[in-house]
């Protein structure tokens, strides 16, 4: 079968590899679509970091690694002791491996496991291949109304929706989203899904502003053209917002949040970037702000997002595109340069 394997930094090769078969408790999937995301870009341009030549303690994964952790497809075979799905079922995969015995796992936070990794980041196989094999407990059957392309977006939209849940906002409240890339769009749609009435988005790139405006978001700000803090308060009746959700991770965003939050508002960081920032801790005390993070998604979030997508909460027009499998190395360059939004790779049969 064909697969896209990461051998090292900026060394992604489309190769012929052996087709995997499921063992006991495992499911084999013919992949239809696989999304490319920021984690893939970090591993490709800045790593490899998550997967090296040392076997991962949970998965045994080593380089070269078949990439891809946002995917959906059709079950083609199951191993012994699998009864949750059968051959022909349409599925997506909740791809997190966890140890089950560290403090985070024991307290219901497997996404924060000491050894957490992801299928397609450091594992035996990944979604950028014609077939992949996963443990049966990762597999999520799809409702009839959901397409396989929509299902390949469940994983990143679960990341976004987890941030919304961490913000703790709902009807009659307000939020500012920093950044309108795929996760920023997902956060915005997630805020809408939980009933947040006043949603504002700040994004410097014109194409991204246009994409999120096309989804019906009224308050989209260009930080190069307006003072974001002043404009947010002007559009929000003179008061601060209940939450800021940072999907950009730029150094400048750390000065924006304290300036726009209402007292005891919450600043949620979703962006996963390796930068040092200057931050005055007294600002947190002065407004009694809460500074928190959101990583991956907690138990139950993935399946909740399947239902939300099936019910139309995450429309894809204008910000999701499809590419052919052999374009993957070129598309990685485009994504890194900001020339594309969200990309789904169509995997050949």
Task: Kindly list the characteristics that best describe this protein.
349 residues; alpha/beta; Quinone Oxidoreductase, Chain A, domain 1; Rossmann fold; 7-stranded mixed β-sheet; 11 helices
CATH architecture label of the largest domain: Alpha-Beta Complex
Number of alpha- plus pi-helical segments? 11
CATH superfamily of the largest domain: Medium-chain alcohol dehydrogenases, catalytic domain
What name does the CATH topology of the largest domain carry?
Answer: Quinone Oxidoreductase, Chain A, domain 1
Overall pLDDT, averaged? 96
Fraction of helical residues: 25-40%
State the shape.
globular
Q: What is the name of the CATH class of the largest domain?
A: Alpha Beta
Total strand segments:
18
The residue ranges in which pLDDT falls below 50 over 5 or more consecutive positions are: none
Gyration radius (Cα, Å) is 20 Å
Query: What are the secondary-structure elements, in order, as H or E?
Result: EEEHEEEEHEEEHHEHEHEHEHEHEHEHE
**What is the CA–CA distance across the termini?**
10 Å
Largest sheet: 7 strands, mixed
Overall tally of domains: 2
Structure description:
The chain has 349 residues and is of the alpha/beta class. It has 2 domains: 2-153 and 316-346, Quinone Oxidoreductase, Chain A, domain 1 (Alpha-Beta Complex), CATH 3.90.180; 157-293, Rossmann fold (3-Layer(aba) Sandwich), CATH 3.40.50. The chain is built from 11 helices and 18 strands. The protein has helices spanning 38-46, 103-106, 148-151, 154-167, 182-193, 206-213, 228-235, 253-260, 282-287, 301-310, 328-336; strands at 2-8, 11-16, 26-36, 65-66, 70-78, 90-93, 96-97, 117-118, 131-135, 139-141, 174-178, 198-202, 219-221, 241-246, 261-269, 290-293, 320-324, 342-346. The strands form 4 sheets. Strands 3, 5, 6, 9, 10, 17 and 18 form a 7-stranded mixed beta sheet that branches. Helix 11 links the parallel strand 17 (320-324) and strand 18. Helix 4 (154-167) packs across helix 5 (182-193), helix 4 crosses helix 10 (301-310) and helix 7 (228-235) packs parallel to helix 8 (253-260). The longest helix has 14 residues, at 154-167. It is globular and about 60 Å long. 45% of the residues are buried. The mean pLDDT is 96.
């Amino acid at each position: 079968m064909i697969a896209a394997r990461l051998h090292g930094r900026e060394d992604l090769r489309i190769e012929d590899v052996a087709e995997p078969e499921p063992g006991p408790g495992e499911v084999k999937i013919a992949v239809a679509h696989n999304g490319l995301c920021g984690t893939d870009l970090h591993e490709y341009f800045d790593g490899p970091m998550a997967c090296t030549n040392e076997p991962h303690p949970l998965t045994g994964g080593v380089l070269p690694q078949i990439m891809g952790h946002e995917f959906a497809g059709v079950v083609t075979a199951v191993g012994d002791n699998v009864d949750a799905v059968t051959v022909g079922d349409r599925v997506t995969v909740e791809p997190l491996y966890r140890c089950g015995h560290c403090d985070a796992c024991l307290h219901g936070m497997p996404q924060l496991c000491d050894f957490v990794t992801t299928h397609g980041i450091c594992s035996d196989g990944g979604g950028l291949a014609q077939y992949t094999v996963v443990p049966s407990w990762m597999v999520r059957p799809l409702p009839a109304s959901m397409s396989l392309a929509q299902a390949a977006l469940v994983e990143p939209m679960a990341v976004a929706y987890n941030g919304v849940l961490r913000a703790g906002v709902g009807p009659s409240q307000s939020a500012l989203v920093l950044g309108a890339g795929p996760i920023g769009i997902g956060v915005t749609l997630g805020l809408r899904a939980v009933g947040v009435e006043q949603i504002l988005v700040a994004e410097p790139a014109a194409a991204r502003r246009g994409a999120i405006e096309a989804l019906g978001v009224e308050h989209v700000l260009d930080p190069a053209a307006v003072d974001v803090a002043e404009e947010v308060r002007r559009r929000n009746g003179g008061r601060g917002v209940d939450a800021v959700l940072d999907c950009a991770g730029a150094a400048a965003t750390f000065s924006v949040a304290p300036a726009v939050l209402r007292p005891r508002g919450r600043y949620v960081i979703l962006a996963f970037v390796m930068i040092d920032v200057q931050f005055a801790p007294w600002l947190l005390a002065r407004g009694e702000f809460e500074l928190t993070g959101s990583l991956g998604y907690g138990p139950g979030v993935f399946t909740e997002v399947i239902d939300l997508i099936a019910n139309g909460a995450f429309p894809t027009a204008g910000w999701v595109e499809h590419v052919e499998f052999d374009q993957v190395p070129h598309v990685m360059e485009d994504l890194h340069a900001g020339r594309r939004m969200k990309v789904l790779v169509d995997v050949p049969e």
